[in-house]
Amino acid sequence: MASKNGTNGSNGHGNQFELAAATLSGDLRDAFLTMMKQQKKPWEKLSEHEQRNVASGIATSCHEIVMKAVELVRSEARPRVACRIEKLTIDDKGTKMTIGGVMPTDPAIMDVAHMQGRRVLIIEADHRDFVGERAPFKPQPDQRTLDEAADQA
Fold first, then answer.
1. Is 27 exposed, middle or buried (0-12, 13-18, 19+ CB in 10 A)?
2. DSSP track, 24-39
3. Shortest CA distance to 17 belongs to which of 53, 69, 75?
4. pLDDT in tens, 70-123
5. Contact criterion met (CB below 8 Å) for 56 and 137
6. Confidence grade of residue 146 (pLDDT, cut at 50, 70, 90)
7. 61, 11 Cβ separation under 8 angstroms
């Protein structure tokens, strides 16, 4: 992402969100509120299969949001490009690095072009350190006991 103030994203389920360091908490809230507003039925009325689909969409959104948030926070809104280090050569003349994973049409590559000859900071932006969970999602089974049905009536 080339944005200096924030980053845009989509979770592949039609949910668009924008993140910025100064408004990160509110941006996360807005992303989840958007998902909630898109729900057609209350949770209790969803089948187990529908609950799994909703949970999957939320998990995908969370994963995407965390990826974008980690990139944003670690870069502190500086010009940046997400890439892979393809090759690193260290010899008596110095160090040379080749990057990959950036499309030539990506606007972020222009940020890299402007960085030539300047001192830069290379940091790891791997989001995998931040995508854990306390426990796996457990949907409510479709078949409820008579006691459970009576409690909800």
1. buried
2. HHHHHHHHHHHHHHT-
3. 69
4. 777 777 767 778 889 999 999 999 999 999 988 888 888 888 888 889 888 888
5. no
6. low
7. yes
Q: Where are the domains of the chain?
A: 6-141
Cβ-proximal residues to 8 (8 Å cutoff; 6+ apart), any chain: 1, 16, 17, 18, 19
The number of beta carbons lying within 10 Å of the beta carbon of residue 120 is 11
User: DSSP label at 104?
Assistant: T
**Cβ neighbour number for residue 68 with a 10 Å cutoff:** 23
Query: Pick from 29, 25, 26, 24: which is nearest to 7 by CA?
Result: 24
Distance, CA of 66 to CA of 37 (rounded, Å): 21
